[in-house]
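Writing this down once: the sequence line spells out the residues, with the fold written below as integer tokens. I am pasting one below:
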Amino acid sequence: MPATCCWHRRAVRADRTVGNCLDTDENAGGPVSIEPSRESAPAHVEELVLVRHGESLGNVADAEARRRGLGRLDLDTRDPDTPLSERGRQQADVLGRSVSALGADDQPEVVLSSPYARAAQTAHVVTERLGLRATPDERLRERDLGVFDGLTGAGIREAYPEEAERRSRLGKFYYRPPGGESWTDVALRVRHVLVDLASMYAGRRVWVFTHQAVIMSFRLVLEGLDERRLLELDRDEPLGNCSLTRYRRGSGGTLELVSFADTSHLQASDAEETHESAQSEAG
């Protein structure tokens, strides 16, 4: 079945809309508040669409390793170099056809991408149809798992039992694996990206091709979510491969969540939907 040019968006209500959540204190050197401030709402992009990459060989290897109870993924590439699977390329192609069928006023004007192969390949398939080029931004890369890279939960518990216990005690939101990043580290990257989007692309339609943890961190920052709510979303609402999470600028100048994890373009085609378990460390 051919891809449809009409997006059947699954409307969701944002827990909060975006206000001036990017305030910083120059003396403190970091963000001091994530509370929206409607009185001083910044200029922002007209639309922000967050695209998760198509299924990668890493996603496939992770699912197989967990199915077989293995401790390590059967994968011989670095995480940044892991490409799309055949199914992932099909998902990206369906997305590209759907986006190219949109009217000019709905197509992206600016495209940014994680430099990781799976995200860059997804972006290329889409932008090639539009005559655009994706700008790589290393801040959009997936969360660095450090020494846990390539391991399943079982593998982490076997190889690093003390770290596994510490992670369980601290919680996945704040825990930083040795040599890696916590979710809060990713959120700091996202804050800086949003500052640049507001200053460089105000009033424009921006599409960002990236990864699961990064998209969830955008939600954290833009909607002022707390740890509990973010982890509930991560557990209960799977973020499928090649899904779209869409924000639009509202009447007050703030970005408002329109849809989360929308895969209607895949549902309207013969492309298979895929997503991994919330237990997965792969993104």
Remarks:
- The longest helix spans residues 183-200.
- The two ends are 29 Å apart (CA to CA).
- The longest strand covers residues 255-262.
- Confidence is low (pLDDT under 50) at residues 1-41.
